[in-house]
Amino acid sequence: MDPALSMDVAKQVLLSLGAILAAGSICGLLAQKARVPDVVIFLLAGILLGPEMFGVIDVKADSALNQIILIFGSCYILFDGGTSLRLKVLKEVWITIVTIATVGVLIMIAVTGVAAFYILEVPFIVALLLGAAIASTDPATLVPIFKQVRIKDRVAQTVMAESAFNDAMGAIVTFAVLAVAMGNGDFSLGGSLLKLLKEASIGILAGAILGYLASLLIAHEKFDFLSEYAPVVTLMAVIGAYLVADRLQASGFMSVFVFGIFLGNRDTFGFRMEKGEEERLELFVSTTAFIMRMFIFILLGTQVNFALMNQFLGGGILVVLIFMLVGRPLTVFACASPDRCARWSFRELIFMCWTRETGVIPAALVGLLVGVKAPGSEMIASVTFIAILMTILLQATTTKWLARRLDLLVEE
């Protein structure tokens, strides 16, 4: 590339990054004043600053910069969410988490697929591909929401853990259906479940090993020679956990999440940091997660394509409403209510029915479908952006209100 052109590109990237940081700081303050999750304000700011409106920020969805921010940002947010989970709570609800992250994803795909088939009048395999693309919940949205809105531990941790674990299932089924849609293979439920088990097991193992090693190096009584560099260790380990799992053809996001769980529960393994160092680490993690949240959702807002959305607006809204109001409640009651160990109350189940935002992971899957020119990819992209806007703007903004109404809110 010509040096002058490289310099121009670098300056444009710096301008975009500076605009995101400036807008994100203002949006964070506005969200705090309005008492709404900041991801909502970030998304709206991105729409305003994007090429569809004022054109201040224009980072292409398929650019290397966008992919780096998307992958690392999602990983660090997942790591942050994992550190806030407690093993003693997860022991009570693990059956619900496993069921809803596997069987629940298949239920969401089926309901959404049938709705799209009849409403949008597309081939059934294309309708299933849409259902698979948007079936996963979004940890990059849910983790920060539960950081800001304090919900009873077992409910919040179940929803966060589900969102981290079900992205692997959603991706596996998406690519399996894609192979059928493009005439490259046959869908096999048994094969898909076997692949999920393999990816999950390797991802969990990789995250657990790295999480234990990181805890050892920053919090062990004798071997904590990296305790002063704990924030840097988290950066290295998050990247390492994702890349190691990905190289082993496992879920990198699951690996990062489990790494966070192990590091956050280091006391369980007898590792304790000094108070000052622990506070410094927590401040670094929370600040970095906030910056990553800011970048991800402002960029996601800039990439909303209103011209594409308008092509399937009416039918897309109906499909998403069925997705939200039929598919999710059916999933929760079918997968969570039989769990006798957790003993979910009706109020807790209602809350889980409403809390399932669509965001970064489905957007990334749709980007891949558009890139390979999958059948119906424009329709799938349109409905996915409708789902992202509807779930974040409607569900994220009402999370605290609903939690208070259902007496699940933990007041500060």
Describe the structure.
The structure is a single chain. The chain has two domains: 57 residues; 338 residues, Up-down Bundle (Na+/H+ antiporter like fold). The chain is built from 16 helices and no strands. α3 packs across α6, α5 packs antiparallel against α7 and α8 packs antiparallel against α9. It is globular and about 65 Å long. The model has no long low-confidence stretch (mean pLDDT 86).
- What do we call the CATH topology of the largest domain? Na+/H+ antiporter like fold
**Major β-sheet profile:** none
* Low-confidence sequence ranges: none
> How many discrete domains?
2
Level-2 CATH architecture of the largest domain: Up-down Bundle
Rg to the nearest angstrom? 21 Å
Which word captures the global form?
A: globular
* Number of continuous helical runs: 16
Total E-strand runs = 0
Instruction: Report, as a whole number of angstroms, the end-to-end distance.
Output: 54 Å
The helix/strand class is mainly alpha
What fraction of the residues are assigned to beta strands by DSSP? under 5%
Helix share of residues?
over 70%
